């Protein structure tokens, strides 16, 4: 390479650095097509969700066009479970739909589900009170859908799975546990940003603690340990799963959510009372709260990669607080107007972003495939000073608001409207 070429490279680098520092001019930004605030609908879309009691079980339903499909969700309250029991929930949900029942092998069950339903999934979920971050309720969700003519079949397959599970096929159970462990492990590298946020926030609220236990590093550690226990004493560990099924799937824990058209809702109202009688009635602890101790942690997890995923999570305010919406907009502004520039363009990471989880009340900074851990932490430190020193201009505020509305006003599928 000649001296002239080297000088040219240096000049190009300086020009790029100047461009990154100055950003786009107002004129350049004005050339781009832009949606304005006047284009946003001021009226919130409301879904007329109705509710009544079926044999003292809350029944929520939404009458909406579904193209001949019904979407049903059963929610079983699991707030009273202890920590070791809660850790099992993702695995239990996966096993129930894949190992078979006392009358159907896993192959026969798979055929029944494929023939008569659009799928049945079982997994744990957690919800936070909008005005109180410390109050969290968790459920085991059973979600299924089917065409109207298969309504009876959908319900019968569901109760077969929940009330008559069989873990007798040791080889199949071990195979599923191992597969879950490997799937979660293989997700860490491509989704390291999400894992970093989950791990960093796990001691900030009960909701975050559950997310870590169900979908983070803690779940991976649990699966590794549980697999060893299964190999050592299979019958003992399976007994725990069987007892959990009996403990969870009873009428006193249940809520029903249905999304369908009026005629099929009436069909469900006729069928459900007799179907619910199949479920046992067991006493549970009322209004149980998840025990939680908040604390601040600074730590790192070693993974098999030569880049890092750096997260910082800061507790903010409840969803109903006046500062919640501005923080959500601020996150959008910082993500596109500060962290992206400093972490990706200047720092060499694949990505850098800021986000505000209004429901959980937490502000997150994160980087993706990042070669500069310490420099990135300094960028997080500098974000507040960037805002205080007037680094944000009016056009960025408008852009941030529009980005927020673009995410909250996205179309909803028929199956998601009722829930």
Protein architecture, described:
This protein has helices at 3-22, 26-30, 83-96, 106-116, 151-163, 170-188, 192-200, 206-215, 217-232, 234-248, 262-276, 324-345, 373-388, 394-408, 414-417, and strands at residues 50-54, 57-63, 69-77, 120-129, 132-147, 254-260, 311-315, 351-357, 362-368. The protein has 419 residues and is of the alpha+beta class. The strands form two sheets. The protein has a six-stranded mixed beta sheet with strand order 1-2-6-3-5-4. The model has no long low-confidence stretch (mean pLDDT 89).
Whole-number average pLDDT? Answer: 89
First-residue to last-residue Cα separation: 63 Å
User: Helices and strands: which structural class?
Assistant: alpha+beta
Query: Can you tell me the residue ranges where pLDDT is under 50 for at least 5 consecutive residues?
Result: none
Please tell me what the overall shape is. Answer: globular
The largest sheet, given as strand count, sense and whether it forms a barrel, is:
6 strands, mixed
How many strand units? Answer: 9
Gyration radius over CA: 25 Å
Strand order of the largest sheet: 1-2-6-3-5-4
What's the helix-strand series? HHEEEHHEEHHHHHHEHEHEEHHH
Contiguous helical run count: 15
The percent range for strand residues is: 15-25%
Features:
three-stranded antiparallel β-sheet; six-stranded mixed β-sheet
Q: How is the topology of this model organized?
A:
Elements: H1 3-22, H2 26-30, E1 50-54, E2 57-63, E3 69-77, H3 83-96, H4 106-116, E4 120-129, E5 132-147, H5 151-163, H6 170-188, H7 192-200, H8 206-215, H9 217-232, H10 234-248, E6 254-260, H11 262-276, E7 311-315, H12 324-345, E8 351-357, E9 362-368, H13 373-388, H14 394-408, H15 414-417
Parallel strand pairs: 2-6
Antiparallel strand pairs: 1-2, 3-5, 3-6, 4-5, 7-9, 8-9
Helix pairs in contact: 3-8, 5-11, 6-9, 8-9, 9-10, 12-13, 12-14
